[in-house]
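Q: What does the predicted 3D structure of Nucleoside phosphorylase domain-containing protein look like?
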Amino acid sequence: MPELSRAPSWAQCRTAARSVWSTEYAREAIDLVRPRGPLGIIRSRGPLPLMLYVAARDGRLVWNGPESLAILQPPGDIALPAVGGLRLGVLRRLARAWDITLFAVPPALMLVGAALAALWHVTTAGTGSRAAVLLLAVGAVAYLSVLLTCLVVTGLGWFYREFGRPTPPDERIAAELMPGQRWTLVFCHHVDDRRPRLLLELARQQLADLLRSDVEEYGRDVGTEIPLLNVTETLVCLQQGVTTQSMRDVVDAWTEQDRIFGANAGVTVKMAGYPAARPPNRLVDRGGFLFWYLAGEAVVVTVAARLVADQERAACAAPCTTHPVDYGRALHWLGSRLFFTDPYGLTPATHQAWTLGLLTSLMSLMGVFVTITAAQQYLRVRRTLQQRIERKIAMANRRTRTLIIVATDEENQAVCEAAREVTGCQPELDFLPHQTVQRLGTISRTELMLVQVRPGSVGPGSAAISAAALVSQLEPHFLILTGICYGLRPDRHEFGDILVCDQLRAIDHRKEAEPAGHRPGTPFGSGAEAAAALAETPAPAGSRTVLIRGDAVTPSTTLLSRFRAVAQTWTSGGRVHFGPMLSASTLVSARSLRDELHEQQPEALGGEMEGAGVYAAAAHAKVDWILVKAICDWGFEKGDDFHERAARNAARFVVRVAEERGFDLAPPRGSI
């Protein structure tokens, strides 16, 4: 984990701790950042200077000096990746497991001392060493007894608070639960009146840097570079962790826009600048603490058995078969006390042994609650991991859908054959309410679907209405119109050449006026005047003035770039040309009309009949679309000799783009 803030020294951390203690809400803030653990009398986190020192090395400390600092806490207060060597690892363990350290280390040291004293007694037969052994052993047991008693009392108090009192308000529940699911500003100390809001903005920025560094590090591990990351994490701010009233007011104002509870609720949130697609799924502890608890129980029983045996043997002068006077019987008796029972024919005779047995039973009772909690944690983590696996499977099976639209039988057959050459599968028919879709199979990671519409852009079965209905029902990622077209540039193109539309010009919508230079007369006042003018005067001489008012639109830039890339290596039939295409519901088979269109649109490569309808449907549904057709005639002296070649070339080119993974990845809606 990189150090994202200026890491203060140990002396600076001690100075900061003294500054914290001088504030009005120091005790309240420290109680939050250093809560009391299950033992009740020992805090679960280390002293404040140690926490500041470790948090700085973990990148969680926002440091502006001893009098301006904040601590970020990860969801569930889980441990961040341990880096920094053995020394920092030990300090990190002390900071995070202060209560466990104080629970285990002192009695362990006393027992080690007792063992050494016993060894000294055996080797030297000194009388003082025996008293030292007894004193150290009794001290260890007494220490553990006091802490276990505190554990039971604390557990009963927690049980009463949770189940014996009325339901607390929502904000109090949120203050307890939200830090388990979100990053939290758990501690905030600022005593300088200058720029207090800067500390909060730095905390927000540092959180973003932490999250980005984790994702970037993971990306590098799997061989991926992630150029842009938007942070969607919500930062929880706990008022109890702020040390001064003035800073509490600043935090309240900073989060006011995102307030979800009333004023003085004790918990506020600062939303990210980007909305999250779904709530984050946090992985917390798997319940491994159960094994530590069981190991602790085993150690306690093992040590206590020796004490029980010594006490019982001292109290029973004659041979006692019904008392645990040796280590094996004592261990057997204490093991039974874990299950709240006594072995048949074996009972202790001393109050000290009964006390140890009672504490062992209480320890086992607490173990039941620990086991239940551990099982819940384990099942939660299992569910989380299962969801991750399911998401990975869904990611692996994620495919796009590409809908290909044609208008003639030759075009339909050409697309089916081109797809079958790659997939080896026959089309499967899918009967929708008003259309029949042919599913051609999957090429790379896109599912190809084919539908044949009526020629032209108007009519019940035309491209406009059919494409709109299909887009709504099939929800394709890409919409491809392919087939045959007429060319307008025989001087540059040849039969079978493929025309990819980079601008579609809808020429049906037009205004036709009198020839240029015509001076309109006085408007008619009645139908009779208009009839007389038609009978007595000829139409104005010359060609009509034509004004195209239809849309001139660009297809999907994503598809254009991919088709251009594949065209660089295309050698399988016909050359590929990119340029404007005309679209009108008119079958062009007249030299005069062809010449007129070429004169009006000299940049156009060719024309066809369905493109305007497909564009209209795609624009309404915001689907990426493109038009890819091949030349079969020149708009006059038409014949059918080159229909098959043109349809085949266009179909194969579209399928080649699918083979080259051109349809594998669909851009998210609204992305650039």
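A (community wiki): The structure tokens above were generated from the sequence. Residues 1-5 have pLDDT under 50 and may be disordered. Residues 10-106+169-270 form one domain.
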